[in-house]
């Protein structure tokens, strides 16, 4: 099967690739993450993925666009629903690219993270698949969370300390400075 996999970061790609590659799937990665802030963090995650992909022999598409403004416009004053928008926008983009490039399926490494809303991601992926008329490949990669984290650490791959958006950065670091963690 020809699969386009949205990749949020290199550490989250390790385990899903380990599971999918032995089955002979033709996998191409897609780094599309306008939610990641600040831009230097975005660059660091993108460049880390490019380095990992070169070592692993994975083709990765990294669109030049950085649609941060669209992300902010769509989540401002709707912060509690920001993850739904974030998942949806990235999966729509991935499905659209997959359809245009004649992939059989699309998926996301967001299904690997134990910190993401797995049910929401799965539901959005299935809805997006219907809308774009391309199959969503679902797999619960969370069982490999510890293994992927261990391997990324052993490889010395940059591992970010927060999900990516400015809201998650605040949740991660502000609480600690206020004695709330």
Characterize the structure shown.
With 181 residues, this protein is an alpha/beta fold. The model has no long low-confidence stretch (mean pLDDT 93). It has a single domain, classed as Rossmann fold, CATH 3.40.50.620. It has a five-stranded parallel sheet with strand order 3-2-1-4-5, with helices on both faces. It has seven helices and five strands, in the order βαβαβααβαβαα. α1 crosses α6 and α4 packs parallel to α5.
Task: Give the helix/strand layout.
Blueprint: E1 2-6, H1 10-20, E2 26-30, H2 39-56, E3 59-61, H3 68-75, H4 82-100, E4 105-108, H5 118-132, E5 135-136, H6 145-155, H7 166-177
State the end-to-end distance: 44 Å
Radius of gyration: 16 Å
- Sequence of secondary-structure elements: EHEHEHHEHEHH
- At CATH level 3, the topology is Rossmann fold
Could you report the average pLDDT, rounded to the nearest whole number? 93
Structural class: alpha/beta
Would you report the number of β strands?
5
């Amino acid at each position: 099967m020809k699969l386009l996999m949205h990749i949020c970061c290199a550490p989250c790609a390790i385990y899903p690739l380990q599971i999918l590659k032995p089955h002979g799937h033709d996998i191409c990665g897609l780094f599309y993450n306008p939610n990641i802030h600040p831009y230097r963090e975005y660059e660091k995650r993108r460049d880390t993925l490019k380095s990992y992909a070169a070592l692993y022999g994975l083709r990765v598409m990294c669109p030049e666009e950085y649609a941060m403004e669209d992300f902010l416009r769509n989540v401002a004053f709707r912060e509690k629903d920001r993850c739904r928008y974030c998942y949806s926008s990235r999966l729509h983009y991935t499905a659209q690219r997959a359809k245009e490039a004649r992939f059989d399926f699309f998926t996301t490494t967001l299904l690997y993270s134990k910190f993401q809303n797995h049910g929401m991601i799965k539901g959005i992926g299935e809805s997006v698949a219907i809308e774009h008329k391309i199959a969503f490949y679902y797999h619960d990669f969370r069982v490999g969370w510890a293994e992927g984290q261990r391997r990324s650490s052993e490889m010395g791959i940059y591992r970010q300390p927060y999900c990516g958006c400015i809201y998650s950065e605040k949740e991660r670091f502000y609480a600690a400075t206020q004695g709330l963690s």
